[in-house]
Amino acid sequence: MIEELTKSQELLDRRKNVVANGVGVFNTATVKHAKGAIITDADGNELIDFAGGIGVVNAGHCPEPVVDAIREQAGKYLHTSFNVVTYEPYIQLCEELAEILPHGEKTKVMLVSTGAEAVENAIKIARQATKKSAILCFTGAYHGRTMMAMTLTSKVSYKYDCGPFAPEVYRLPFPNFYRYSGTKTLDEFVDDELKRLHESALNLVDVTELAAIIIEPIQGEGGFNPAPQRYLEGLRSFCDEHGIMLIMDEVQSGFCRTGHWASWQHYGVQPDISTYAKSMGSGLPIAAVVGKADIMDAAASGSIGGTYIGSPICCVAASATIKYMKDINLNERAVEVGNIISTRLNNLKKDCPEIGDVRGIGAMIGIEFVKNGDPRQPNSEVCGPIVKGCAEHGLIVLSAGTYKNVLRILSPLVITNEQLNKGLTILENEIIKAISQII
Known about the structure:
By secondary structure, the chain is α/β, with parallel strands linked by helices.
């Protein structure tokens, strides 16, 4: 008897038949509808979501105020292009972003559709503001897959056969304390990394030609690596000393994920320019570049933006998302969610030496797997079976990291404690199972 295909498998087969292979498949789950922290697949199975659309649904799937705002705006107008016809939702959203993400005495904002677009425009603004061309970025970075963003992105597998890349881009090692500190204390490690930064002005790039340094305060795709506090402070001082723009990429870490609107607020280190997307619009394509007004205004008229620079539908979705996040105090909830995750995974770590590190800020938590307890020996074999096993037991989770040896948790922050703990139990069981099979 021929076994009948599930609706999910039929959908995946159709995908394989018509969608280009280069479009990644990070998890084999499907979706028919979703609400809160639960995804219901094509066969009616409920899945707990620990991926959040890669950090896009911090406010949950289909929050009602956001859906209502989208419906209302859709009945008014869908598109005029803000370049051609000015509309209030764009201006309102920029005002709201300037309020929650102030950059100095006066803040200005521009809207685009994606995080990669935000990065591209941030670089253009920094170059025009400084009249310089060189950009400094970091290993482990992920900034997108358009040309400049892809050049800034570190992971080679995202860039196969895509060169030549954008010129005048230079790279330093990210200050990953867990992986590279060895026997050094945190202070000793940061001292050495800041020394490396200052030496880069002599052996890597002419500092007088350096327009900007771009960094994720907490790396996303790179493995949820937080930069040390004093390193970011030193980076800010270095930029001030040499007239360099400090750009912070908050695309994955923004909008309540770390318990703040942006992770730089956790650090208390002010960027000149910062970029946002993902959870800003609860799933609609909206992104922003936010910066000090005089820097933002340095860009020549028409040199930044595009046709879809803040769709009115996406703008109202983002404004409704921000209001909803404020109303339910999602920043506070992120800290609660993060504490539950960290406590449980650190308890598991005591009995699993293969777990090298549990780290993060707020609810942006990563679990790194290593061999022989050595941070320099990433265990790339364990995450695949864990992701697969979790999917089979009703949990969606994603891997990350240069070596794909980090699991990242990006659950919607509206997840209930019951759902969160149920998901963590599935995850813990699959971690133990995967490790035992590899051993």
